[in-house]
Amino acid sequence: MTKDERQTLINQYKDGYRVVAEALVGATDDELDAHPAPGKWSAREIVHHLADSEMTSAVRLRLLLAADRPAIAGYDQDEFARRLFYDRPIAASLDAFKAARRTTAELLDRLSEADWLREGSHSEHPAYNVEVWLKIYGCHAHDHATQILAARDAGRKA
């Protein structure tokens, strides 16, 4: 990955909270709870997923940076949704998502070239290093902001 490609992903990562927050402006409970299709998450569930995923990803990055070849465990996001009460209010999860993104962005701005190449093993990825981490999480929030808008739209049509 070139420095320019990396910086583009870092900028996208930093912009992730904004796009999610904008996708939620004015959302009603009906819009938050609507499922755009059977088996698809509601906007409320997506927000909780983002918080859980972001907190997990923040720890993953820190392990990659501070431990030698850490073992990174995957998790079952659907099981998280079933067991972690994804029907609750979203305010605290938005706060957690925002804080994790902000503190992690501060780290990304300080990484050396050697830091970007630090590796670990991941139960779901054949090769996992800091650059792979950024490729995964750089666009994650943007992808889910699009899903939030689709779910809200389904709620307006219901």
- The computed structural class is mainly alpha
Question: Helix amount, in percent?
Answer: 55-70%
Distance between the termini: 44 Å
Q: What is the number of E strands?
A: 3
Cα radius of gyration in angstroms: 16 Å
Q: Report the biggest beta sheet as strand number plus sense, adding barrel if it closes.
A: 3 strands, mixed
Please indicate the count of domains: 1
Low-confidence stretches: none
Q: Helix segment count?
A: 8
CATH superfamily: dinb family like domain
In percent terms, what proportion of residues is strand? 5-15%
Second CATH tier, the architecture = Up-down Bundle
Order of helices and strands: HHHEHHHEEHH
**3D shape:** globular
